[in-house]
Amino acid sequence: MTKSELIAMLASRYPQLAVRDTDIAVKTVLDAMTQALVNGQRIEIRGFGSFSLSKRAPRVGRNPKSGETVMVPGKQVPHFKAGKELRERVDAAFEANKAVSTPA
Q1: How many CA atoms lie within 13 A of 16 on its CB side?
Q2: Rounded CA separation 79/101 (Å)
Q3: pTM of the prediction?
Q4: CA-to-CA distance for 32 and 67, rounded, in angstroms?
Q5: Rg (Cα) of the chain, in Å, rounded?
């Protein structure tokens, strides 16, 4: 699902909200999450999961075209860990779909 698909789905699910208002709300939430990660904070959404930063150390890589070794700098990368409730709901839905699609 893309951001625009999420906005369209929320706007259709909640007709009292204008599409423009839904767009602003989604962008505001995503911007706040991004800023929290930039500030080194951890984000936890109960029942959904948590976002944190993982540090990748600098390493020696290889240019696939020339074979030359290059130094790849260290960096911070976002990491998502699904919460227990999300994992259980996805697993239950997957099992239900699997049972419906495969005849006994």
Answers
A1: 0
A2: 33
A3: 0.76
A4: 41
A5: 20
CA–CA distance, 103 with 53 (Å, rounded to integer): 44
Q: Contact 73/54 with Cβ under 8 angstroms?
A: no
As a whole number of angstroms, the distance between CA 30 and CA 82 comes to 17
pLDDT in tens, 14-60: 999 999 999 999 999 999 999 999 999 999 999 999 999 999 999 99
How would DSSP label each residue in 49-78?
EEEEEEEE--EEEE-TTT--EEEEPPEEEE
Q: Which long-range contacts (CB under 8 A, 24 or more apart) does 26-35 make?
A: 27/3, 30/3
Q: Is 80 helix (H, G, I), strand (E, B) or coil?
A: strand
SS3 81: strand
- In contact, 3 and 11? CB cutoff 8 Å: no
